[in-house]
Design goal:
The two termini are 67 Å apart. By secondary structure, the protein is mainly β. Helix 5 crosses helix 6 and helix 7 packs parallel to helix 8. The chain has nine helices and 41 strands. It is 11% helix and 30% strand. Strands 29, 32, 33, 34, 35, 36 and 39 form a seven-stranded mixed sheet that branches. Strands 8-7-2-1-11-12 form a six-stranded mixed sheet. A six-stranded mixed sheet has the order 27-28-26-25-41-40, covered by helices on one side.
Length: 813
């Protein structure tokens, strides 16, 4: 839902049972010309014949009265301090001796439409009481008493009808109902509503003199069309201007959330940069038009920036009309043929980190320019393939270019900052709701809707119809078990796991460890929270979380793991406030032993020492350089010393700082600022320094770095870790289409890594896809595992030992 302060236009009705104090009715000079002739709030209610509420104006003078910049406003009968006047802007004029019909909200009942209105709003008026004002302004009134309203010179006429007890002229009219209206038959204005109005059957008449069932008038479009409003850049050249009679055909409506409707010009210009579609925002009330209505829309041109207008907000804007009034010219018209989306390879122009909003669009070169050139337009995707699973908000990512960097399982791989995959577009429900989908699923046939720009993802297709859901058939992967002579080390981000989580989450994570990862010897865990999770009470211990997880693994048929970890200082490691997130080791004592060496705590750095000529840790487990500012408000790496078949393996668990605060790929600032890279670069340098310390003591030491590095295989942080070839990033050894463990905004990418020292040259590595591609997830990350042969520290000895191990495994038992 959009924040109210950022909006201009119609506000939702907010009546209250608490009345303001009554005051003596004030008198004002009677209106000499335009006044309110009839008020009806029962439209569409039970028993009503008419389908809509209305306010009818009249001009009792001999000269036309321009209504440009005027409005009709409404206040509930018993207005509280929190009540707001609701506004319907007016256009045109009311001629001498004629009427002017303002249509308001449409209800569910009734069978007879109003005559073609001269202006349209969306105010849901009460049938039995309220106040209506004719105002020579479009700014909402603030007066809540008759005296205060009488002092407001912008008010040309004021009618309190029925149960209105706060604001009225004199005393209110008699009580109308669902089937009766309050009308001023003689157009008298004595400033006493009860004397001037009578109650009877509603008789709406428009400027053409037509009543209900009469022929439609022949309204004229204004001098601006949709492509004039959209312009050739991302920001409308008419921003802030009031436009009248903008023609188009309604293509779709949205009755919930950001309510409104899309309409499109059926006579486009020849400029591919200017969109022919536009969104009309109707604030808190559902639109009253329908697809196929030919309309003339008036309102104010606005640019809505999801997330607010602060300079720090990198989102682009959505061009729209606010404070709209609508004239329906005809109904049942054919919709324009939807544009089949075919974006180019390029993504966005580079403005040196500045805003691209003033740049001329180049839709033939840049995919995001292409989507902007179709903002608000009616579009189509054929056989849409899902590249980002449906999330908890019902949003799904599809690709309009299925051959662009495909993965084997149906996704779209992200291989570099210069390859952001222009075919991706987010999909959310418009008037049709897509079925929850996994990566690789296809919506066979046409998926049709309108392009808009939204928070968290940018350009979005709001669906009007969705193709037939066809499963892509992906299933959770399973790795094979480690061979007896292989040490298996896995990493798994378990997404804020706390003892307070439902048992079902533990069970699913445990099943993945046992069934999909084949019970690794060592499991590096990220995002373990303290025992009471996000409760912020100073708790830092996580023993209950580990115990619950280990028990669930045993119940799933796995080994009884032991754990090693170090409690962080309270609220010092980032993550969810109060959760005290940390990294940890699980290990299977039947296969591998942990070298426990005292001295490790939250603040003491682990060092590398020489024992019997080989590298060892001063404390195990121990934290790597925890006082380094690189780890401020971030998880500190945890080093552990393991023994496997007599060989030492140093494993370091990692969870680098997140990308929070980085500017979005789709944002207005290009290229985007990736400010979080700075800290990850410092963290990578600190971690690499630790590896170098180990190698300085023992060149043949076995080192495994595992965890959520929160960065890509092509990132500067990973380049720092692998510089000089001493450490190998295993995900970079996979074929390009397989280098992912996470799916974000429809891009299959990696944040999780296992890196090994280059002397470990016999290994089998696997990313095990069990979560990231599925709508139903136990975590948002996929785990990965390496099955390796630790080195003895001597290449010749390695060959002999490895041969003997393999030979022994082949002998009968």
């Amino acid at each position: 839902m959009r924040p109210t302060p950022l909006r201009i236009g119609l506000a939702a009705a907010a009546a209250s049972a608490v009345s303001l104090a009554l005051v003596t009715p004030a008198t004002a000079a009677p209106s000499p010309d335009a006044l309110i002739a009839e008020v009806y709030g029962g439209g569409g209610n039970s028993g009503a014949t008419l389908t809509r509420d209305f306010v009818e104006l009249a001009n009792r003078s001999t000269s036309p009265v321009s209504l440009a910049g005027w409005s009709v406003q409404y206040l509930p009968a018993s207005a509280s301090a929190a009540s707001q006047w609701q506004v319907t802007p007016l256009t045109g004029s009311v001629e001498p001796g004629t009427r002017y019909l303002v249509a308001e909200a449409k209800g569910a009942a009734g069978t007879v439409e109003l005559p073609a209105p001269d202006a349209t709003g969306t105010i849901a008026m009460s049938a039995t009481g309220g106040t209506v004002a004719l105002v020579a302004a479009t700014t909402a009134l603030t007066c809540k008493t008759a005296a205060d309203c009488a002092a407001d010179t912008r008010i040309r006429d004021l009618v309190g009808y029925g149960t209105a007890t706060v604001v009225r002229e004199g005393t209110p009219t008699a009580n109308p109902s669902n089937t009766t209206a309050a009308a001023r038959p003689a157009l008298d204005d004595t400033d006493d509503n009860s004397a001037d109005f009578t109650v009877g059957a509603p008789t709406p008449v428009n400027a053409a003199g037509q009543g209900p069932g009469g022929p439609d008038p022949d309204p004229e479009p204004g001098d601006k069309r949709i492509h004039d409003i959209q312009g050739t850049t991302r920001v409308s050249p008419l921003l802030g201007a009031k436009v009248g009679g903008v023609p188009g055909v309604v293509t779709a409506t949205r009755a919930t959330g950001d309510r409104g409707f899309w309409f499109q010009d059926t006579s486009p210009d020849a400029d591919p940069r200017t969109s022919e579609g536009l969104f009309a925002y109707t604030a808190g009330l559902a639109p009253t038009v329908e697809p196929g209505d030919a309309v003339l829309v008036s309102g104010t041109v606005a640019e809505y920036r999801p997330g607010g207008d602060a300079a720090s907000n990198a989102n682009q804007t959505l061009t729209e009309l606010t404070g709209v009034t609508v004239t329906v010219v005809s109904k049942g018209n054919a919709l324009p043929t939807p544009v089949v989306l075919t974006p180019p390879d390029g993504f966005l122009p580079n403005a040196g980190g500045g805003s691209i909003e003033a740049l001329e669009l180049n839709p033939a070169t840049y995919g995001q320019d292409y989507y902007e050139s179709l903002e608000g337009a009616y579009v189509q995707v054929d056989d849409a393939r899902v590249v980002g699973p449906t999330n908890s908000f019902g949003e799904t990512w599809i690709t309009t270019r299925p051959t662009q960097h495909p993965t084997a399982r149906g996704g779209t791989i992200y291989l570099g900052y210069d390859q952001p995959n222009s075919g991706r577009i987010k999909v959310k429900a418009g008037s049709a709701t897509p079925q929850a989908s996994n990566v690789g699923d296809v919506w066979r046939g046409a998926t049709v809707g309108n392009v808009e720009y939204t928070n968290f993802g940018g350009y979005t297709l709001a669906t009007k119809s969705v193709g037939e859901h066809v499963s892509g058939g992906i299933t959770p992967e399973k790795t094979d078990a480690a061979r007896p002579y292989e040490l298996s080390v896995a990493t798994y981000n378990v997404e804020n796991l706390a003892a307070t989580n439902p048992q079902a989450k533990f069970d699913r994570l445990a099943a993945a460890v046992v069934q999909n990862l084949a019970s690794p010897d060592v499991v590096v865990l990220e995002e373990i929270q303290d025992n009471n999770g996000a409760t912020d009470d100073g708790t830092v211990a996580a023993d209950a979380t580990y115990a619950k997880f280990v028990d669930a693994i045993v119940a799933a048929g796995g080994p009884r793991y032991e754990w090693r970890q170090i409690d962080p200082r309270n609220k010092a490691d980032g993550g969810e406030p109060g959760g005290n997130i940390r990294v940890a080791f699980l290990f299977n004592p039947a296969r591998v032993s942990f070298v426990d060496r005292p001295g490790g705590d939250a603040t003491t750095p682990v060092s590398v020492v020489k024992r019997h000529g080989r590298a060892a840790l001063s404390a195990s487990p121990g934290r790597v350089d925890p006082a380094n500012t690189a780890w401020d408000n971030s998880r500190k790496p945890l080093a552990g010393e393991f023994k496997f078949r007599g060989r030492t393996v140093f494993v370091v668990a990692n969870h680098f700082n997140s990308k929070g605060g980085d500017q979005a790929l789709h944002g207005r600032y290009q290229e985007p600022n990736r400010g979080s890279e700075v800290q990850r670069g410092q963290q990578a340098a600190a971690l690499r320094a630790f590896v170098d310390q180990v190698k300085a003591v023992d060149r043949g030491a076995n080192v495994v770095l595992a965890g959520d590095i929160n960065d890509y295989q092509f990132s500067p942080a990973v380049a720092t870790l692998t510089a000089g070839g001493a450490v190998v990033d295993l995900i970079s050894t996979l074929p390009e289409a397989e280098r992912y463990s996470y799916v974000f905004d429809g891009n299959s990418q990696t944040l999780d890594h296992i890196l090994i020292s280059a002397n470990i040259n016999r290994y089998r590595y696997d990313v095990v896809h069990v979560n990231a591609e599925f709508a139903d997830q136990a975590s948002d990350h996929d785990p990965q595992v390496v099955k390796l042969r630790p080195s003895t520290g001597n290449a010749q000895a390695d060959r002999m030992v490895f041969f003997l191990e393999e030979l022994l495994e082949c002998l009968p038992r």
